[in-house]
Design brief:
Distance between the termini: 27 Å
Number of strands: 0
Order of helices and strands: HHHHHHH
Structural class: mainly alpha
Radius of gyration: 18 Å
């Protein structure tokens, strides 16, 4: 991955990308970076794949086409989500879910403490800016 030097700053090595749960978190982190940079747009979706404009735009068009097919035939989504997981994948996902649950509990406690001190609004506003919004064609 071209992102390995940046990921190394956070202690993430190439082998972490092969662990499904970690891979998903890293991918979400990278997509979020693009959304912060480009907004909730198809450009951000394309930039997840490539910073090169032609490759970025082609990827965004391909993803838009896939979503269009899913909208026309929702049964296609079930086919994607029905892919079997290996026992190792399930174990990693369960371990990741346990860590995520603990992290969520910590964030909830922190949020409650911030709310008591009047600091929660700014912290929550940043995470809610793109929630539920449709992608624009910007």
């Amino acid at each position: 991955s071209i992102h390995l030097p940046e990921l190394a700053q956070y202690g993430i090595r190439r082998d972490a990308l092969m662990v499904p749960c970690k891979n998903v978190y890293i991918a979400a982190w990278h997509l979020r970076k693009q959304v912060v940079r480009y907004g909730n747009t198809w450009t951000a979706v394309g930039a997840y794949h490539s910073a090169t404009p032609a490759l970025r735009d082609d990827y965004a068009r391909r993803i838009a086409a896939i979503i269009g097919r899913w909208q026309r035939d929702p049964s296609l989504i079930a086919q994607v989500s029905a892919a079997p997981l290996s026992a190792a994948d399930v174990h990693v996902a369960q371990s990741g879910a346990a860590r995520a649950g603990a992290a969520q509990a910590n964030r909830t406690q922190t949020g409650a403490a911030q709310a008591e001190s009047g600091q929660a609004g700014a912290a929550q506003a940043g995470s809610a800016q793109t929630g539920g919004a449709q992608l624009s064609s910007r």
